[in-house]
Structures are given as structure tokens and as C-alpha cells.
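Q: How would the C-alpha cells look for this protein?
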Amino acid sequence: MSVTLSSPEGMLPNAPYHHVAVGTGTRHVYLAGQVAHTGDGSPIPADLAGQVAQALRNVARGLRGAGADFGDVVRLTVYVTDWEPAKIGDFMAGIEAVADEVGLPTPMPPATLIGVQALYEPEVLVEIEATAIVN
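A: Here is the predicted structure in C-alpha cell form.
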């Protein structure tokens, strides 16, 4: 395994993600921001949970294409439009809906959620970037 995840004592407890990832490997994978678009061009979900779930499926697909998976991820960066703390339930519902399907560990790798005013298309509510290290 090229990535070791941890949450050292004294850091925020019970977070849905690990605070630290240590990667050892020679290949770094940088995945561009993924949104809820599908390969077949079907409409993206209108709700935050649905978009989070589909964006994570797309992240998993991109990682697989590079010979990686969520076990190799050292960092996730998530951008959510018009963020407010009341949206956390919908956000987490999207993660929980696909975590097993895509192999996303619980707690997740280190993650940052950034509220933004808008993304590149008005209907896009979430965009997820990933960084991984593979032996």
C-alpha cells in the first residue's frame, strides 16, 4: 500500500476524513475536477446528494484509468456552490450512497470542502479533485 492514513491525537475527533496521508510511491496521479456529467450525456442529477455520488463515480473511473483507486488517494478537494452548513446532510448522503460501490474508505482520505459562488455550468453544484500516489 502506497498511502497510510491517520488522524493524530489532538486533531478534530470523529471527522468523516483522516487528517493526514503519507504517500510513498513513484507515480503521482492528479485528477482534474470531476462533476456529475455522465459518459452517455444523460442529464446530471438536480440535487446535491445525487451530484456528489455521480462525481465520486467519475473520480473512481479516472483513478482506475491511471491504475489507482481510492486507497491510493492522499487528498480530495471538493468545491460546492452556495455552501452553507445546513447542506452537510445532503453532501454526506451522496458520499454514503456510493462509498462501497467506488471503494471510498471510511473515514475518507484527507479532504477539504470549499464553498464557491458558482462552477463552470449553472447546473453543476459540486466538483471533486483527487491526488493519489501509486507505487
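The mean pLDDT is 95.

DSSP finds two helices and six strands in the chain.

Upvote if useful.
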